């Protein structure tokens, strides 16, 4: 045995049952009931492995709160609204959003907050951050959230849902697997037989991919749940994540530890393993169940459309020179398209019930500005 119990367990599983598909490996790394990355620690911030947009600046959550208010008004200002966050981190984004929403008492009174979180460490942090919120509850899955008009926020949620990887070989597309090399170390491999007729399901861009190309896909179950919910019960969902606008070939499976990239096969359960989100696939699945899709657009464009520059200027006006500099740096990080910026890497997709024809920040500029 080593000091890596999950690695030992995965090796034992491969020895007994054969090579393991990438999706199963990713699922074990993140959600193993004892050793999974997301069930055992707080991964956020300087002391953790990565930093999310809400941790960069309060402006991010505040603007999503104002976006929520805009959508609520478009829904006809219902007297009861479920505000649902998927994978809510430390509760920072929700706390900032609710602070912004306090200026609108009719909406604030209408809210019941639902946090979908499986990590007990983070649930505790969220409870402390949101201790003053009166109507709040926690759930393991969105399936457990009661029915009703809803606005759903999902920031960096879809990137950790397990992916299937397919690799193109001479005789077709094979499921990519994790196997053991001659020294007993984990390595990538491919299932011996191709997946029958897999190319029929592929987007046109991918069908012409060369031998050796990798294509990633996620099952549509989670996005279809969100889309069906807002279609049937009124409301909208906002998905923010890093990924690509068009379905294409490419290997994006990666690990992040201590804010740097790491080998995803080296220390299972001890690093965050993710893959880019295919926004075209999300949009297609949502439209297939009859929801309306808005966007996607780049995060920088979305935040500028809903007023981040104005909010930053207002905060800087009241701040000390040092704090004003911090706000300026945070603004740049959230909206810039260059190295270190999140502005173009991250995309924003809206999904709503069909009657909501335009949503702030995701429709054309004039409509977004008018909401």
From TrEMBL:
Which is one Pfam family of this protein?
Methyltransf_28
Q: Which domain of life is it from?
A: Bacteria
Q: Which Gene3D superfamilies match?
A: 3.40.50.12710
Which keywords describe this protein according to UniProt?
Answer: Methyltransferase, Transferase
Q: Give one GO biological process term.
A: methylation
MF terms from GO for this chain are: protein-arginine omega-N symmetric methyltransferase activity
Transmembrane spans: none
Report the coiled-coil segments: none
Alphabetized InterPro entries for the sequence: NDUFAF7, NDUFAF7_sf, SAM-dependent_MTases_sf
PANTHER family noted in UniProt? PROTEIN ARGININE METHYLTRANSFERASE NDUFAF7, MITOCHONDRIAL (PTHR12049:SF7)
Name of protein: Class I SAM-dependent methyltransferase
């Amino acid at each position: 045995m080593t000091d890596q119990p999950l690695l030992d367990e995965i090796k034992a599983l491969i020895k007994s049952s054969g090579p393991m598909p990438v999706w199963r490996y990713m699922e074990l790394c993140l959600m193993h009931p004892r050793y999974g990355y997301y069930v055992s620690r707080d991964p956020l911030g300087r002391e953790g492995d990565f930093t999310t947009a809400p941790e960069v600046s309060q402006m991010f959550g505040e603007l999503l709160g104002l976006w929520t208010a805009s959508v609520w008004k478009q829904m006809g200002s219902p007297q009861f609204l479920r505000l649902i966050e998927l994978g809510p981190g430390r509760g920072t984004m929700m706390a900032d959003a609710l602070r912004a929403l306090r200026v609108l008492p009719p909406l604030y009174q209408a809210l019941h907050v639902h946090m979908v979180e499986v990590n007990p460490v983070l649930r505790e942090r969220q409870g402390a951050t949101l201790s003053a919120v009166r109507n709040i509850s926690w759930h393991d899955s969105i399936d457990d959230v009661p029915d009703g008009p809803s606005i759903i926020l999902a920031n960096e949620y879809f990137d950790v849902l397990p992916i299937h990887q397919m690799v193109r070989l001479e005789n077709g597309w094979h499921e990519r697997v994790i196997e053991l090399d001659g020294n007993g170390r984990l390595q990538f491999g491919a299932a011996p037989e191709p997946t029958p007729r897999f190319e029929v399901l592929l987007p046109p861009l991918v069908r012409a991919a060369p031998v050796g190309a990798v294509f990633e896909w996620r099952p549509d179950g989670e996005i279809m749940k969100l889309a069906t919910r807002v279609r049937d019960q009124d409301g909208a969902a906002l998905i923010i994540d890093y990924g690509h606008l068009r379905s294409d070939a490419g290997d994006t499976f990666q690990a992040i530890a201590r804010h740097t990239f790491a080998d995803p096969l080296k220390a299972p359960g001890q690093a965050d393993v993710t893959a880019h989100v295919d926004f075209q696939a999300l949009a297609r699945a949502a439209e297939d169940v009859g929801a309306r899709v808005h966007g996607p657009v780049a995060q920088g464009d979305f935040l500028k459309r809903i007023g981040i520059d104005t909010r930053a200027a207002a905060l800087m006006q009241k701040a000390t020179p040092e704090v004003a500099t911090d706000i300026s740096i945070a603004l740049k990080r959230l909206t810039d398209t260059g190295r270190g910026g999140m502005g173009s890497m991250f995309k924003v997709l809206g999904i709503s019930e069909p009657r909501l024809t335009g949503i702030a920040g995701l429709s054309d500029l004039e409509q977004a500005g008018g909401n």
